[in-house]
Design a protein that fits this description.
This protein is an alpha+beta fold. The chain contains 34 helices and 32 strands. The two termini are about 45 Å apart.
């Protein structure tokens, strides 16, 4: 750091002491132990003379790698970096040694140099603050904040405390012991969890406490679960984890899907998984503890059963912006539906003349391609082979020969010279001109490098000059991963998922023309459908329909093939609105008459839906909202003619719920009635054994869409912070690098009010819940918790903010909480060393402010590879010196995460793996996931607490 002293009194030198600087450097060069005494006190910037900074930096560099800092070593270090002459050569270093008698007083010299350095910084800060005062265009609040930061920045680094005689420390310890005996209080700050406080004696001032756990514990999906990205592509969880970036869909507060960036990607190892199948045929594989959205809130799979209804997307309006030529889209649809891609050339088999003609036109738009029809005397459906067009091939040779002759006329040399330049014989060039032969692709590339191209003579015609030219369509299908796939293997290629909406509609239009249908059944029911022998293809079509808001049910069927029955997968579209949307936005080529019959049938029928309904559990919310009003009165106000609402007995249609919600003037129920969610019934839950699982962290909403199902994604430490701030009325600083302050406040409100956090976030609060919510607001408003959600904060910034908070509050801090350690920013390439420096700095912060510091940390995947899943110290992720710096290490463990049938369901073990000043062991707590709240576990002689926020004795 170079300080600018322009404008400072010219008659005065900036504060400095050159002799002290020389004595320090001489002592370092003279005494091998001297560097250890000043390295934690001095910085290179503290030296006033520039060459002194360079010499000290050399000593620092050597000391950091465990090498001596003597004269020879420092000289070699400077010489290797071409710095020796810049500091005055070896004679300058020798002079420093000669002037130094010993390093006995180097500590005092270091304090003196730092004193002068701080004074220079103060002068510099004063000059900068003066300049800020003249910036009239800058808001005063900004100027004051910047000025304050400049003053606080001076105290970022302070000398360590000197050695203190033992008798002074003994006196202080005895006085504290007397105070504890008189008050019968625990020596530290109590957490509010009885067993934990009994084991630790409370959190001690100056302690660094690490609370570690696996991220998103238990909320994991199978690695092959597919996630829809906002560019239209579908990627598996495993692929998304490897990419480490992605924008996905999440269900927002108003029951609408919105875009969001994934903030973290989590590899959670191998876990027992279960497949959930719904009435619509959608499937997903998750752990038993993964939450699913019900109409009453998020519930883990362990609490769900067959017959329960969960939220799945009703529409996913995501389309790409990567168009394709329309003839390619048509051809893909036809060949996926009725194509044979395993023989020598692509083959299409279909008996509809309109489809045949459309297919032929699409093929002929590929340069040099045509269709060869195969007849079987009328005994079988005709087939069409895509082949190279011989007539166009001959025409291209004529064009090429003519163009070559014209180009040679413009060529500055002879044909013989050209042949020599491209490495062929002159006779071969003559054959090209005679239309009897054509060059290879490799030779043609060299040819066009020497001859000027024209409309009739360009590289595009070369690919179709030779009889052995490769089939263009076959090559194209190969690049898309379709060639060589039979009917049980064909899938929709990735390029289709990124198409714009009109082109995606065109693809589905032609695909349904092959194996799709539109019909009015004898019962009068209208139905659209598609049949495939490949389950994956059927699921892909089901997903693409969902992008148009079309709900299709997938069912397994048995179809007759020759003399046997084979499994197939059938998509049925029977929902009236979905059929209408399909007719209006997609249609079926060549089946327009059938589509029109369906349209006319729908026009004459009264719309009744017994599928897209709101679960009957919503009646309870309606009952609470109507209060003392009767159902009859509410029905009349809503304009519902029916005398029987079937309250609590039947699910509600969207239209009826909307009428009731409007009558009750409840916006949330109105949003629910017109939501993007379909409430699908669970039809099966099956255990599948163990598999690799992943999870995502989604900011704010904490949910995303996987396999077209809504799925969900740090509460213990927050509970402690709340307890301590409430009991001791001391300021608690919370630094949240993962969640926003609004999200943390919502968690606290959910815990205090007993209202589910997802309902609070969406504003879904019933009339009788306003009173506990108001009490929670009033209670929390009196608690001195201060939240900072700055991303990538450093320990230096934390220290400055904690000092400022302590000064503003006029009392010591009660706790500093960091969530979480691995998100902190450091300097350097080695992450383990970075975190080691961070934990040492956090320990320094705890000692400097005399306050407990709790830092959340992640556990590594090593725990997943063992039979015993309980974490150990070695499982601390990127541990480095975390376990050495920490005074207390606690690890969270839930047995039901790994063993769904455990008797300890709902219980969290807090494993005290390290306790510098006391015993280690296990503390058991109850965890309430709906309210993200931990509670004390009942034990003999002590009842189960209704909350972890009871009154604590003064410390």
């Amino acid at each position: 750091m170079v300080l600018d002293f322009q404008g400072y009194d010219a008659d005065k030198l900036p504060p400095q002491n050159i002799e002290a600087e020389e004595a320090i450097l001489g002592g370092i060069l003279l005494d091998p132990e001297a560097m250890n005494r000043v390295v934690e006190v001095l910085t290179a910037e503290a030296f006033y003379v520039k060459i002194h900074q360079t010499i000290f930096q050399a000593a620092q560099g050597l000391h950091s790698v465990g090498q001596p800092t003597d004269l020879i070593s420092v000289t070699a270090w400077l010489r290797d970096r071409d710095l020796l002459e810049k500091v005055g050569g070896q004679s300058k270093l020798a002079q420093l040694v000669d002037r130094t008698v010993s390093a006995v007083n180097i500590d005092q010299y270091a304090a003196l140099v730092m004193d002068k350095y701080f004074r220079r910084q103060l002068i510099q800060a004063g000059q900068e603050i003066t300049g800020l005062g003249y910036q009239a265009a800058t808001p005063l609040e900004t100027v004051l904040d910047q000025a304050e930061q400049k003053i606080f920045s001076i105290t970022q680094k302070r000398p360590q405390q000197d050695l203190v005689p033992l008798f002074e420390t003994l006196i202080h310890a005895f006085q504290e012991l007397e105070a504890q005996i008189e008050t019968q209080a625990q020596p530290g700050f109590l957490s509010g969890f009885y067993d934990l406080d009994a084991m630790t004696g409370g959190f001690q001032t100056s302690d660094l406490i690490i609370v570690a756990g696996r991220p998103s514990m238990g909320k994991c999906l199978h690695e092959r679960s597919q996630v829809l990205l906002t560019d239209g592509s579908l990627v598996t969880m495993g692929e998304l984890y490897r990419r480490r970036q992605g924008t996905v869909l999440t269900l927002g507060n108003h029951w609408r899907f919105q875009q969001t960036q994934v903030s973290d990607f989590i590899d959670d190892g191998v876990k027992p998984i279960f497949r959930v199948t719904t009435r619509l045929g959608r499937q997903i594989e998750t752990t038993l503890t993964h939450p699913y959205l019900t109409v009453t809130g998020w519930k883990p799979l362990a609490n769900l059963a067959v017959g329960d209804r969960i939220a799945v997307p009703r529409r996913l309006e995501v389309f790409g912006d990567e168009p394709l030529p329309e003839h390619q889209i048509k051809l893909l649809a036809y060949l996926i539906g009725d194509g044979t891609l395993t023989s020598g050339t692509p083959r299409f088999t279909n008996g509809n003349p309109n489809i045949q003609q459309d297919f032929i036109e699409a093929v002929e738009q590929f340069p040099g391609m045509t269709v060869h029809q195969q007849h079987s005397g009328g005994t079988r459906t005709p087939s069409f082979l895509t082949v190279c067009d011989p007539q166009q091939m001959a025409a291209n040779r004529v064009r090429f020969a003519t163009g070559l002759r014209d180009a040679l006329a413009q060529y500055p040399g002879s044909a013989r010279q050209l042949a020599a330049q491209i490495g062929v014989s002159p006779a071969l060039v003559s054959l090209w001109k005679s239309k009897n032969l054509s060059p290879s692709l490799e030779v043609s590339e060299r040819l066009f490098q020497h001859l000027e191209a024209s409309p009739d003579f360009n590289p595009d015609i070369v690919t179709n000059l030779r009889r052995v030219s490769r089939n263009r369509i076959k090559c194209w299908l190969d690049t898309l991963g379709l060639w060589g796939k039979n009917a049980h293997q064909k899938t929709i290629p990735e390029v289709i998922f990124k198409l714009p909406k009109p082109q995606l509609a065109l693809f589905l239009n032609r695909l349904f023309a092959t194996d799709g249908w539109a019909a009015v059944l004898n019962s009068g029911q209208c139905q659209l459908g598609y049949l495939s022998v490949h389950e994956v293809l059927a699921r892909q079509i089901q997903h693409l329909l969902l992008r148009f808001g079309i709900i299709a049910a997938l069912k397994r069927r048995q179809v007759r093939y020759k003399d046997e029955r084979r499994p197939a997968w059938q998509l049925d579209i029977t929902h009236v609105q979905s059929i209408r949307r399909f007719i209006d936005e997609i249609g079926i080529f060549s089946k327009e008459e059938a589509i029109e019959r369906v349209r006319q049938s729908l026009a004459t029928r009264r719309e009744q839906s017994n599928r897209d309904l709101i679960p009957k559990e919503v009646w309870e919310r309606l009952r609470v909202l109507k209060g003392q009003d009767s159902w009859t009165s509410l029905r009349k106000r809503a304009g519902i003619a029916s005398n029987n609402l079937h309250v609590g007995q039947r699910a509600l249609s969207r239209s009826r719920l909307l009428k009731l919600a409007i009558a009750l003037d409840n916006p949330d129920l109105q949003h629910l009635a017109d939501s993007d969610v379909y409430w699908d019934e669970i039809t099966a839950i099956e255990g599948l054994g163990e598999a690799q699982v992943y999870d995502l962290t989604i900011p704010e909403t904490h949910n995303f869409v996987a396999n077209d199902i809504c799925v969900h994604n740090t509460a213990f430490s927050l509970n402690i912070a709340r307890n301590l701030a409430n009991s001791y009325k001391l300021p608690v600083a919370v630094f949240s690098l993962e969640m926003s302050k609004e999200q943390l406040v919502q968690r606290l409100l959910a815990s205090d009010s007993g209202i589910e956090s997802n309902r609070l976030r969406a504003g879904r609060v019933s009339q009788n819940e306003w009173e506990p919510l108001s009490r929670a607001l009033a209670s929390l408003s009196e608690i001195p918790i201060f939240i900072d959600d700055t991303a990538n904060i450093t320990v230096t910034e934390m220290r400055s903010k904690c000092r400022r908070l302590q000064a503003e509050q006029g009392k010591p801090l009660g706790l500093v909480l960091l969530d979480y350690l691995q998100l902190m920013e450091g300097a350097g390439d080695n992450r383990v060393q970075e975190l080691s420096r961070i934990t040492r700095s956090l320990k320094g912060l705890a000692r400097e402010l005399n306050v407990p510091v709790i830092a959340l940390s992640q556990l590594s995947r090593g725990v997943e590879a063992r039979n015993n899943k309980r974490p150990m110290m070695s499982d601390l992720r990127e541990s480095g010196s975390i376990e050495q710096d920490a005074d207390l290490v606690a690890m969270l463990y839930r047995d039901e995460y790994y063993n769904p049938d455990t008797p300890d369901r709902g219980i969290t073990e807090l494993i005290i793996a390290k306790h510098r000043n006391g015993p280690t062991g296990i503390v058991k707590l109850l965890f309430d996931p709906q309210y993200t709240r931990f509670r004390n576990l009942a034990s003999p002689g002590r009842p189960l607490s209704g909350s972890a926020y009871g009154q604590l004795p003064p410390g």
